[in-house]
Amino acid sequence: MISVTIASPDKDFKAQWDDLIARAPGNVFMNPVALKAALDTMFAVVHVLLAWEEGVEPARLVGLWALQQRSVMFMWPALLEARPYNYAFLSTPVIDPAFAGEVIPAFFAAIRNNRALPNVVSLREMDAESQAYAAIQKTIADEHHAHVMLTESARPFVSRERGVKGSGSTRKKLRQDWNRLSALGKLEVVNERSGDAARAAFEQFLDLERRSWKGAEGTAILCDDHDAQFTRKLIGDLADDGNASVALLRLDDRPIAAQVVMYCGTTAYTWKIAFDSEFAKYSPGSLLVDKLPEQLFSSSNVQVIDSCSAETSFMAQLWTGRKTMVDMVVDVGSRRSLVFSMEAARQFGYEKLRTLRDRLRAMSLLPAKRRLAPSQ
Questions:
Q1: How many other C-beta atoms lie within 10 A of the C-beta of residue 363?
Q2: Residue 32 host element (H or E)
């Protein structure tokens, strides 16, 4: 039997989370430490759905889904966003595989039966290959919930078994760039996993990002004080538990590229990247990401690296693994609501405009966005 409670991120359920992660595919963005960072910095209004297996002593956590409450089109009424805060790039709930078919209907019912919660849920960047998503699809069909599928895409990843390109023009260029950079001085990749080291390296990442085109366009994290406050606490607090680090590509001890990495179970997530534009011709960001799998696979229990990035990103040029991702909106209420129609129309319109923008860029009618890093 499954029961669901709805908690605030300040509730202490870290021990139960650690036990769940040992049995379930993880999602680092729903780590209780990350959720509490969002609460402590007032970065997001987060509701945590906890599914418990009853009939055992003590009750065992078999599912967790953190949902951000936000407004539709900057006004009331509200909906639930399954990415629990901005800078989260995965909305998949964390569920013990043995209970997926029971937990998802229980989650939907808990939302529907709580009068304080909106019934419309936006599922962006959902792992379509997960058991949780299969259970969501079945529950929607069984209970006849209004829903709309917005997009289906492919996300690059790499694993110990597959995903790294071993040859070709990209591999040849990376070797050449590494050799050219090595000729300038001592070139090394450093990725220390302690909390203090991660905090110091994160400041170097922030500085590199601020001095890049993102800083010039006002999209770097340091361009917004609230974003900076939250992400510093997010990375620092995760790093204290060994769940975040910042890999640095250093030339004579000078950081020329920085990749922020998060960890959950046996999965690593390449969250954000920045590089020194002075060395752009050597592709330092690509070099760092290219070296990262070998380092993580040889020095940790990491089995898979999730790019947190779109198929159009530079990581797709380095990694051949692909995971299907979907964006959709579902109304878990007993009937279709106005909020559902509003949000579905808003997201559908946004995707249409983005597709048009990309086509125009492909025709060279709009300037291509300068980037070496994933779009997030």
A1: 8
A2: helix 32-40
User: What pTM value is reported for the model?
Assistant: 0.91
- Per the structure block, which two tokens stand in for 145? 């919930």
User: Encoding tokens for residue 368?
Assistant: 């291509």
| 24 in Cβ contact with 94 (< 8 Å) | yes
Q: Is 65 left (phi over 0), alpha (psi -120 to 50) or beta?
A: beta
**What is the spatial distance between Cα 261 and Cα 50, in angstroms, rounded to a whole number?**
26
The confidence band for 364, taking pLDDT boundaries of 50, 70 and 90, is low
> Residue 137 is encoded by which pair of tokens?
């699809």
Boundaries of domain holding 62: 2-154+322-362
- How many domains does the structure of the chain reveal? 2
Residue 61 lies in a domain: yes
Digit-coded pLDDT (tens) for 110-143? 999 999 999 999 999 999 999 999 999 999 999 9
Cα torsion through 142, 343, 337, 39, rounded to 10 = 90
One domain, residues 53 and 136: yes
User: How does pLDDT run across 61-112, given as a tens digit for each residue?
Assistant: 999 999 999 887 666 668 999 999 999 999 999 999 999 999 999 999 999 9
The verdict on 145 and 195 lying in the same domain is no
